[in-house]
Give the backbone structure.
Amino acid sequence: MTEYLPKYVNTVTKYVFVESPEMTPGDLAIRAYEISQGVMIKETCFGLQITGKEDEVNAIIAHLREFDPAHIFVKDRGFPPGDSRRCRANLGGARPGYFGHEFEISISRFISKGLVELPKREAIAKPKPPAPEGSAKLDAKRLRQIIEAMET
Amino acid sequence: MAKVFIYPTTSLILSDLVARFGHTPLSAALQIREHIQTPGLESPPLQITPEDPKKGLKWAAVEVPSGVRGRMSLYGPMIEQAEAAIIIHDADFSFGCMGCARTNELIQFLLRKGDIPVLDLRYPRTEEEGIEFVAAIKKFLDELAGGGV
């Protein structure tokens, strides 16, 4: 076993995804670089990864969100960008977490629509969200009914 | 501002919406970051050491596989901190190369056992469902302490 000395201690890394008809990751990166002041920014195919002190990263993200609030999505990341344990350059394929992002970005247009329409909804209107479907397994009560029906 | 446990714990959509509406999302990244930024012995890829399955004993019995207990050492502390939870049920990607079906069941069981409000959803499949999905999350979060931002 070898000693582990972490890099980028006391920093946060956040993903900024952009799925917009009006803005590309490149546009977003330029806006971010304008105010970055030493924060590490990596441009990717889906948006940016921003690494730095929490206050500075949050300030940049708040600034970026203003450009297209309904189409920019942000989440925390555990690893810094380029970490050899996670970076696909070392793994030889997409990193495991990418599949979740790929799926959620594919439905982000529905969320964007929801964010755009939200202020237009009446405050008292009761939401009817998509409810989870019930279990496909046979219900115990139903099984008992079947057994009793067969016995009689 | 309430701490809201999100499931799937890596969800971009939930993480964004919870933070956007003024609360703190409790996601896997926070615990992973803590592991990654703590010095110790090299244990790639996630810095999960033999100590972690021992910590997981608080939430899962000793005969439960170490994979579940190791994962619970990440999620268990967040479940204890959580003041509310949002669960999306049809997240297929949470089971697979980095997921664990039994851990997922245990997480949902512990969330329901705790005395916290829980919102159950599935992913929207149309724009109309997207509108209702966002509205339901906003309403749920507004009703929590410090909500209504």
Summary: Chain B touches chain A through 58 residues (CB under 8 Å). Strands of chain B lie at 3-7, 24-26, 40-41, 84-88, 118-121.
